[in-house]
Amino acid sequence: MACLLVSVILLVLQMHSVPLECLLEGTEAPGEHLDLRTGDVINETQTGSPGTTQRLPQSIIIGVRKGGTRALLEMLDIHPQVAVATTEVHFFDWDQNYVKGLEWYQGLMPLSQPHQITVEKTPGYFTSPLAPERIHAMNSSIKLLLILRDPIERVISDYTQVYYNRLENHKPVQAIENILVRNGALNTRYKAIQRSLYDMHMHNWLCHFPLEQIHIVDGDTLIQDPLPELQKVERFLSLPPRIVSSNFYFNQTKGFYCIRSDGRERCLHESKGRPHPAVNSTVLQQLRSYFKEHNHNFYRMIKRSFSWH
User: Fold this and answer.
1) I need a labelling partner for 178 at 20 to 30 A (CA). Which of 34, 55, 248, 308 fits?
2) CA distance 8 to 17
3) Are 142 and 256 in contact (CB under 8 A)?
């Protein structure tokens, strides 16, 4: 009953969010193989070496949005026994895709060898009321990866992404304080704030999966020192240790770690790591007060704590 109640609450929150957020929300960029507006496959055929096939994922990065999911996926792609889906499929959180069935979903996965595991990532799954039950119905023993960062920093990063999306599309923007605060009070209906209520969303996932099947990656640590976090992920996925320190180098210009593998060097897209706006100290204190109890609830759920505000 408690799990059903949480799902209903999350659905209501999504249905009745402040209209302003709808205006601010930018659409995610279409992937290479999927039109996210229609859910149609752009490139439906894949050919590869003998023995390769498209498999349903054995692991999914379920979120959180602006938590470092793209960095985690790119870094996992270093491992020779991992095959990653390059696009955000939105199968379990978008009804228009879910009704197309598992065969359609499997057709969007990368080709892989029998010894490889397939990993898909869609950050929207973590905050979706329906995704946990749907993923459980596909595979009750699947291994889930959840990368989180300080919830206040995540809110600001969420705003920043939408802010730049609107600038690029020549749409009006508002200062972050004007969105975070309404009539002197914190605007808790703002979607970016709702996405950072980790305890509420985690409760929904724990209704369907044991904690042992959900590995939480510290997104703040991953940015500062990637290797230890990735070694933990290797162990969680029962992968042999193949990711090493030489796979990373710090890019002084960009201000974060880039990847070196197979004789190539690559960094995350320029849209990653954008500077955050300065936020009024009074508003920051309101955010800290609001998230304090939610964070402690989350720590109790996962039997672990973080050095968040």
Assistant:
1) 308
2) 14
3) no
At residue 42, the pLDDT reads 38
Q: CA torsion, points 217, 223, 225, 230, in degrees to nearest 10?
A: 40
Average pLDDT estimate for 251-256? 84
Residue type, 309: H
d(CA 254, CA 297): 35
Q: Which of the four pLDDT bands, split at 50, 70 and 90, describes residue 268?
A: confident
Per the structure block, which two tokens stand in for 179? 């969105």
| 3-state secondary structure string across the chain | CHHHHHHHHHHHHHHCCCHHHHHHCCCCCCCCCEECCCCEECCCCCCCCCCCEECCCCEEEEECCCCCHHHHHHHHCCCCCEEECCCCCCCCCCHHHHCCHHHHHHCCCCEECCCCEEEEECHHHCCCCCHHHHHHHHCCCCEEEEEECCHHHHHHHHHHHHHHHHHHCCCCCCCHHHHHEECCEECCCCHHHHHCCHHHHHHHHHCCCCHHHEEEEEHHHHHHCHHHHHHHHHHHCCCCCCCCHHHEEEECCCCEEEEEECCEEECCCCCCCCCCCCCCHHHHHHHHHHHHHHHHHHHHHHCCCCCCC
Whether the CA torsion 33, 38, 40, 42 is positive or negative: it is negative
Residue 306 has pLDDT above 70, yes or no: yes
For residue 13, pLDDT over 60 is answered with no
Strand partners for 111: 54
Q: How many CB atoms lie within 10 A of CB 131?
A: 26
pTM, whole model, 2 decimals?
A: 0.86
Lowest mean pLDDT segment, chosen from 12-16, 106-110, 161-165, 204-208? 12-16
Contact predicate 131/99, CB 8 Å: no
Q: Residues, the chain, total?
A: 309
Residue type, 219: G
